[in-house]
Structure formats: C-alpha cells, structure tokens
Amino acid sequence: MTSTTARPGRVAKLPPRERILDAAEELFQNEGIRQVSVQAIADRAETTKMAIYRHFTTKDALVAEWLRIVAAGYQDAFDRAETDHPGQPREQILALARFIADGLPAISHRGCPFINSLAELPDRSHPARQVIDQHKARQAGRLTGMCAEAGLPDPEQTAAEITFVLEGAQVSTQNGSIEHAGERLLKFVEGILDRHPLDAP
Amino acid sequence: MTSTTARPGRVAKLPPRERILDAAEELFQNEGIRQVSVQAIADRAETTKMAIYRHFTTKDALVAEWLRIVAAGYQDAFDRAETDHPGQPREQILALARFIADGLPAISHRGCPFINSLAELPDRSHPARQVIDQHKARQAGRLTGMCAEAGLPDPEQTAAEITFVLEGAQVSTQNGSIEHAGERLLKFVEGILDRHPLDAP
DNA sequence: ATCGAACGATACTGGACGGTATCATATGGG
DNA sequence: CCCATATGATACCGTCCAGTATCGTTCGAT
What InterPro entries does this protein's entry cite (chains A, B) (predicted)? Predict the structure, then answer.
C-alpha cells in the first residue's frame, strides 16, 4: 500500500515534470508546436502554467526536451537492432525499417516529429534545432556504418537511399498519398539490400 | 515607352495581387506560414494589409492560393515531362526526378512547401488542405500511370517507391543529413527503373 | 472634366499567448 | 513539530496579430 513516494488521491499520478512531458508529447505531435499553447499543455497535464515554467525555462526549452526524448527513442531502436542481430548488419537495417514501418499507423495523419518540427522552426538558432541536427547526423553515421559492415559496395549511397525511403514513407503516410505504405516500405528496403547479396554465412 | 497599363514611378511594378502572391510565396517558403504575419507580407509586397484583404478573404485563403500556384508548378513539370518525351515513360519519370533534384539546392535549408504546410496545418478542414490532398492524389495517379505505361511489373509498388524517394530526398536535403542528395537521388531512380529493363525500341 | 473603382495609409478592436508575480497549500525530512 | 521546498491557483502585463473601419488619393474609362 503505502509506497514511499507518490500516494495521490485516486490514480497514481506521475510527478508533474513527467506529466508535462507526456502532455507536451501528445499535443506537439498531434497539433503542432506553435498551435499548442503552454496553457493547453498545463491543462492536459493537470497542472498549471506556472508549474511548467518551474521545470522549463521557456516553451522552446520544453520543445527541445521533447525532441530529445523522441530522439532517444530512435536511438533505442538502433541499439535494439544491433543487440538483437549482432554481427548481422542486414538484419539490423531490416529491423530499423520494421521499426519505422510499424510506427506508420500510429503516425497516420500526423507525421514524423523531426520533419514537422523543422517545418515549424525555420530559425536555425532555435534550441530544438541543435537536437534535430545532432540526431540526424548520428543516425546517418550509424546507418552508413551498418551499410559498410554489410559489405555493400557504396555504403554512403546505400545509406542515403535507405534514408530517403524511410523519410519518404513517413511523409507519404502523413499526406495519405500511398496505400499500405508499411508493407511497401519493407518490400522496398529488402529489395535494396538484395541487390548485393553477400550476407550468408 | 508609354505602355497601355502600369506606368509606375520607377520600376515597372506588378499589379498588387501578383505582388502579394510573390511576397507570400517568398515569405511562406522561407519562414513558414504561421510565423509570417499579414503585415509582413504587405510590407514585402510594398502595399498594405488592407489591400491584401481586398484580394483575399482571409489569410488562410491566401495560403491556399499560394499552394494552388505551387501545385500548378509541379503539374507543369509533369506536363513538360510528357511532352518532352512522348511515348517514353521511363524518360518522363527521369525528367521528373531531375526536376526534383534540380530544385533541391534552391530548397536547401527550407523544405517542400507541401510537407511543411502539412506540418503547420494539422486542421484537416483548413482550405489549404484540400489543395494539398488533391495535388498529392493527382500526382500519385499520374506517376502510377507512367509506371504502368513503362511496363513495370508492379506499377503501384514502383510508383510508391519513387514517391518515397522523391519526398525523402527533399526532407533529407532540408535537414542536411545527406550530402549530394541530388546526384544520389538521380542515381537511385535510375537504378529502380533499370531493375526491369524493357524500354528499348 | 468627371465619376467610380481600385489603391494607399492609418488607426482601431478583440482575442490569444508567452511569461511573471503573488498568493495559498501540501509534504516530507530534521 | 516545524520549516524549506515543491506545488497549485489566479490574476496580470506586454506583445503580437487577424481582421475591420475610415479616411484620402490615384487613375482609367466615358
């Protein structure tokens, strides 16, 4: 019963900072950054605007923190791909494609947080931009490494191709121009990897 | 000398409606929709806010009109691809890829207007959304038609793949994660088409 | 010359929003 | 038991902005 911390009125409530981040994630993702007011985040987090400004210096800082969490999720996907398929770079790449493909239905009519944020934050000096830039660079590096490890002839080109495909699948899902984007995405990536068979032990 | 209409003080000034649309194109593209105020558009168009509201019922209507013009530009690219390479669907597709690839440097750090607008306008009832949806559907249809005409075994799949690639190249250029995106894009699309040779006379 | 429509400039309204100040209220460790 | 700290609630400020009203001016057609 009496847990050491957090014994709220009814349901176990998370501490305010996490509630705020959960609410921000939900609202930023579904309604955009600029459209969502700090007050709206506070309402959804069942707290107040003041509480938000106690944990985050500014709205922009909250946005950056949100994207940092999203980026960490993608990093986890990379890590899992590597630990689940050690020494099998092609399987790792396919696992990443599956991760994106599986996420498409959830994204549905609202797209990739990074793509959308970039559109909403043209100012290159915005704190969130550093998060995005770092994440994209790291992601590109890891993917290129996987392609090189897979013995593909031109790792940079193949990594670029896979990046195009993954990003494009998310965009096309968002604008609804492609049916069965997930399946098509997987089929496509498999085809790219099969162009240069080499993996078999 | 004395042209029939428009004899402005110094430089030949376009009529206000076109100046407004030019200014809107410039600002919406480079700074985003929500960030740009009607006043800012008026300033850049060397006119006044009032003049804008004489030509467009609302800011949203101006956004929609802007996207209509952008969509027409893409339609023109499709038309040119067809008339420049009649009966050669593979050349038509390559011409489209070249059109996108050539546009990448201009886009550079700011991305595709449709992708960005979608991010900034989550409200599906926004007038601009109809423009985007129609455009995307028409574009997908035409591309699928080209793929079918090219005798590719699975036109829907191939059209989806090419769409992924074209969209992804624009996104990747925007976030700066890929070097030489234009060249890589063309190489990629050529590879896709060459997977099923059939075109030669 | 004149009339009307389009254009330009300025001021205003009403609302939304980021951020702050100030109050009261828990809460948990000493 | 008590006090520092985190939290909650509310009111407020300055600013920005979409959209409107009203004025005067230009300019082309008749």
Answer: Homeodomain-like_sf, HTH-type_TetR-like_transc_reg, HTH_TetR, Tet_transcr_reg_TetR-rel_C_sf
Q: How far is A15 from chain B (nearest CA, A)?
A: 30
User: Closest-CA residue in chain B for A178?
Assistant: B160
What is the C-alpha separation between B61 and B67, in angstroms, rounded? 10
Q: Determine the distance between B56 (CA) and C9 (C1') in angstroms.
A: 19
Q: How far is CA B11 from the centre of its chain?
A: 29
Q: Which two tokens stand for residue B192?
A: 């896709």
**Based on the structure, what is the number of domains in chain B?**
2
Q: Are A90 and A82 in contact (CB under 8 A)?
A: no
- A150 in the same domain as A128: yes
Give residue-wise pLDDT tens across range A58-72: 999 999 999 999 999
Query: Strand C nucleotides below 7 A of a protein CB?
Result: 6-11, 16-22, 28
Cα of A105 to nearest chain B Cα, Å:
16
* Structural domain span for residue B13: 7-55
In tens, the pLDDT along B148-171 reads 999 999 999 999 999 999 999 999
Does residue A41 sit in the same domain as residue A114?
no
Cα B141 from chain centre: 16
Contact state of B164 with A175 under an 8 Å Cβ cutoff: no
Chain segment A128-153, per-residue pLDDT in tens: 999 999 999 999 999 999 999 999 99
CATH number at residue B140: 1.10.357.10
Residues of chain A in contact with residue B133, where contact means CB-CB under 8 angstroms, are 175-176
Q: Is residue B1 part of a domain?
A: no
